[in-house]
Specification:
This protein is α+β, with helices and mostly antiparallel strands and about 200 residues long. The protein has six helices and nine strands, in the order H-H-H-E-H-E-E-H-E-E-H-E-E-E-E. The N and C termini lie far apart (about 35 Å).
């Protein structure tokens, strides 16, 4: 087995092992003690972030191996509904037509957006806004927050997640158009803004 295959196998094994912790975390979240519940929620949130990163890594491996990802037509509102299930203790608004669709690999794109909204929730003061609109024969998805913003939009404060998101987005193509993922200051809420364009 070559090194990339070994790494992919390890990542997959770690992902499966993390899932084994779900029952124990659930017990913490359902505990009578509020402090224990909060600890359980914090652990669940952290493991959710790690899981998204692992999904992104496996997605990159599949792309590098030139394997076809499972692209299909998806309602953006359905993608947003999945993201909203992760929002707690924060005002989250949505601007998206119910019939807006995009052609993508929903598993990979949900992982990309899940990582982005996790960062938005971590850095926001109180508000996060999800939006999507048609743009240049594609769809532009935005996640804005009202946090401290980005001192320099050219610097990737998204770290590994943004790099993987950009590569996954770029693998989505329609003729000469290809997907893009960027992070910049939010003109809407004054914090950060993650943008994902899918053709």
């Amino acid at each position: 087995m070559e090194l990339p295959d070994q790494i992919a196998a390890i990542v997959h094994d770690v992902k499966n092992r993390l899932q084994l912790l779900s029952p124990a975390i659930g017990s913490l979240q359902n505990n009578d003690s509020v402090e224990v519940q909060q600890a359980g929620n914090s652990i669940a949130s952290t493991l959710d972030e790690i899981n998204h990163q692992l999904v992104l890594l496996l997605g990159i491996y599949r792309l590098d191996e030139a394997e076809l990802f499972a692209a299909e037509e998806c309602f953006v509102s359905d993608l947003f509904e999945t993201l909203l299930q992760r929002v707690h203790d924060c005002e989250c608004t949505v601007d998206c037509d119910d019939d807006l669709t995009v052609f993508c690999d929903p598993r990979l794109i949900t992982a990309v957006l899940g990582d982005a909204i996790h960062n938005a929730l971590r850095h926001c003061d109180a508000k996060v806004h999800l939006s999507a609109q048609p743009k240049e024969k594609g769809v532009l998805i935005r996640i804005d927050d009202d946090g401290d913003g980005l001192a320099d939009a050219s610097q990737s404060s998204g770290g590994l997640g943004l790099m993987l998101a950009a590569k996954i987005a770029g693998a989505h193509r329609n003729g000469e158009l290809h997907g893009q993922a960027t992070l910049k200051p939010s003109s809407l809420l004054g914090g950060g803004c993650f943008e994902l364009f899918l053709p």
